[in-house]
Amino acid sequence: MTGTATPPPGAARPHGPHDADHPAPVIEPPRARRAGTPAATRGNFEMYAWLFMRLSGVLLVLLVLGHLLIQLVLGDGVQRIDFAFVADRWKSPVWQTWDLFLLWLATLHGANGLRTVVNDYAERDAVRLWLKALLYTATAFTTVLGSLVILTFDPDIG
Fold this sequence. Notes:
Elements: H1 45-73, H2 83-89, H3 93-121, H4 125-152
Helix pairs in contact: 1-3, 3-4
């Protein structure tokens, strides 16, 4: 049985009669970078963004279900929600904190999702830059304005 012995560990193994003459074509992995797509420049940022989406999604489900249960199911339902109800509710730091976390998580969760969509579908760098600048501006504006409304709400002004 000559020619059938296995080579020692670490030695090159022959792959077949045509390997030297016709190398196999290189198949690019499906997630390989194409020309014009952003290169990873921030280390583990995408991993943390992915993790944030999962954790914030779970927290958002709990916060939203609690919000809907308290606002719509318990008590008199949607008929009782008016300015006085919100004013009375936001007197409590618990409800201010609840609504603040709901605002922050929903805004950041949505912005992170849209950032991913922009990265996936905006092929030109300039378009990607402007779309993300618009997204970050809208996110900051919404978060700051919403936080100011919740934290500085005073029903007696007016």
